[in-house]
Amino acid sequence: MPHVSADDGVRLYVEEAGDGPPVLFVHEFGGDHRSWEPQVRAFSRRYRCIVYSARGYPPSDVPRDEAAYSQARAVEDIVAVLDGLDVDRAHVVGLSMGGFATLHLGLRHPGRARSLVVCGVGYGAQPEKQQAFREESAVIADAFAREGAAKVTERYAVGPARVQFQNKDPRGWAEWAAHLAEHDSTGSALTMRGVQAARPSLYDLTDELRALEVPTLLVAGDEDEGCLEASLMLKRTIPTAGLALLPKTGHTCNLEEPELFTRLLERFFADVENGAWGPRDPRSLATSTTGMDER
Questions:
Q1: Per-residue confidence at 126, pLDDT binned at 50, 70, 90?
Q2: Secondary structure (3-state) at 282
Q3: Average pLDDT, stretch 24-50?
Q4: pLDDT on residue 294
Q5: Do 217 and 276 meet the contact criterion of CB atoms below 8 Å apart?
Q6: Which of 64, 100, 157, 218 has its CA 20 to 30 Å from the CA of residue 289?
């Protein structure tokens, strides 16, 4: 199986398909490299598609030390994948945990990204919700460590932002849930503690976000309540950001609405490649309804 090595020696499992401009997909906490199969099938016709499993997710290595897991480490692992495959710059697409890592890549290593697609981000980001999110993350981590992934999946897979997928596509949802049940329980627990619970609030990064120049597409499901407010904040803060809300959609938006999701990305990538995705026109920031009183 193909692997690349992070700078601390952890091996990350990677797969590739297709030729063309590189697109790197970064999975969510409840996913792995298999979570992007609809997009890989679509985009590998014209792009070099790259998927990988994060540390803690076999076939990648599962470090047993919690210190090996962090938001910063997740970003450096993206860089390690790009370096290991001799990719200078890529379109980077991330969902949830992967979306946070993708956004932080844009802040820390903007030269490595042709564009950023940041999906389903926001859980625990609002300052007033951060402590509750961290406490819930600790409960989830303890459950993975104590009960194991298969047992936790029975509850996790029917969360408030997962039932939309179950209702729309029971077969696809069952496949995703089966993959989640196969995850390494220790890796999931350590990822939840070290990456999810400990990541900084997006609201503490607004000065950096205002300076972000990489073309950015934000995507959220309109029933993914934990992401809506943060997605609006990011749209209003990042000058190069566009925001797409998918109707009647929860957290797993790329699997719930694969055709719609793929069309969004196709248009976005084309605009970026053609230089047609620029920063927001400052005239759109007028405080009046029509702008007439600004003249």
A1: confident
A2: helix
A3: 98
A4: 54
A5: no
A6: 218
Percent of the chain with pLDDT over 90: 91
**pLDDT at site 292:** 62
Q: Which two tokens stand for residue 203?
A: 């609201």
Report how far Cα 229 is from the mean position of its chain's Cα atoms. Answer: 17
Q: What is the DSSP string of the chain?
A: --EEE-TTS-EEEEEEE--SSEEEEE--TT--GGGGHHHHHHHTTTSEEEEEPPTTSTTS---S-GGG--HHHHHHHHHHHHHHTT-S-EEEEEETHHHHHHHHHHHH-GGGEEEEEEES--TTTSHHHHHHHHHHHHHHHHHHHHH-HHHHHHHHTTSTTTHHHHHH-HHHHHHHHHHHHTS-HHHHHHHIIIIITTPPPGGG-HHHHHT--S-EEEEEETT-HHHHHHHHHHHHH-TTEEEEEETT--S-HHHHSHHHHHHHHHHHHHHHHTT---PPPGGGG-SSSSSGGG-
Q: Name the band, by pLDDT with cuts 50, 70 and 90, for residue 291.
A: low
Q: Which helix (H) or strand (E) holds 77?
A: helix 71-84
Burial 198-212 (b: 16+ CB within 10 A, else e): ebeebbebeeebeeb
Nearest Cα to 216, choosing from 103, 104, 295? 103
Residue from 152, 162, 158 nearest 188 by CA: 152
pLDDT value for 290: 62
- 3-class state of residue 93 by DSSP: strand
pLDDT at 56: 98
Given the DSSP bridges, would you call strands 113-119 and 241-246 parallel, antiparallel or unpaired? Answer: unpaired
